[in-house]
Write a structure and sequence with these properties.
The chain has helices at residues 2-7, 12-15, 27-61, 79-90, 122-132, 142-150, 158-161, 182-187, 206-220, and strands spanning 67-73, 104-110, 137-140, 172-173, 192-195. It is an alpha/beta fold.
Length: 227
């Protein structure tokens, strides 16, 4: 009560504390003030920029293979087996993109009569490639080949899907061929090689067909183009 009696008649504005005069801000004080209020946003933006730069660099440096091959097997092969098959085929290919080396990518899809298709993505991968017509070179285990041709969903018949090779066959079997790496040949003593014909959804894939057919013919006749 005494305080109120003493302050009666005094303007409330006069009782407010006088702001401290900090003087003109220096560049350092401005930076400290900015950093105090915005450092989280700064680090977030920096992180986003770094991620974007990495993605751009990876996209620029991405080295697409010269050939893409679809391998259909009931059991997926290991990384070493796929690398061995790629290395073997690369000796018979051409440097299509002009980067000074022949590169072949073998995509292994689990496919066959004993594969539980409902829980396997292999059949979806194969169907997607059939529609896109972006894979013309096929390598298949015998059971996978039989199952594939029997269940083929295409605008062409089973007999017309693969292009004819020399003779009456549409696939070439590497059984007994002395070139395959021993470990891979033990895993797959018989493998069928075939090239999709330019029919149905692959009607316009003539360049890809010619490149794939040349690669297979070189491989069959052991005509090496690269060492």
């Amino acid at each position: 009560m005494a305080r109120e009696w003493l302050l009666r008649g005094v303007d409330p504005e006069e009782l407010k504390p006088t702001p401290k005069d900090e003087g003109p801000q220096t560049p350092r004080s401005r930076w400290e003030n900015f950093w105090y209020h915005h450092k989280f946003k700064f680090w977030l933006c920096l992180f986003a920029v770094v991620v974007l730069v990495i993605m751009v660099v990876q996209a620029v440096k991405k080295d697409d293979p010269d050939y893409r091959v679809l391998l259909l097997t009931e059991e997926l092969y290991g990384t070493q087996d796929l690398a061995a098959l790629e290395t073997l085929l690369e000796q018979y290919g051409e440097d299509l993109d002009g980067d000074g080396k022949v590169e072949i990518q073998v995509e292994n899809c689990q496919y066959g009569p004993h594969v539980e298709q409902s829980r396997n993505s292999g059949i979806q991968q194969v169907q997607a490639h059939l529609v896109a017509a972006d894979r013309m070179f096929f390598i298949m285990e015998p059971d996978a080949y039989k199952y594939f041709t029997r269940t083929l969903q295409s605008s062409v018949s089973e007999q017309e899907f693969f292009a004819p090779l020399e003779g009456d066959s549409t696939v070439w079997d590497w059984e007994g061929d002395p070139r395959p790496i021993e470990e891979l040949q033990k895993k797959a003593p018989s493998l069928y090689f075939g090239i999709r014909a330019t029919k149905g959804t692959a009607g316009k894939a003539t360049e890809l067909y010619e490149q794939s057919m040349t690669l297979l013919e070189n491989f069959i006749h052991d005509r090496k183009t690269a060492e």
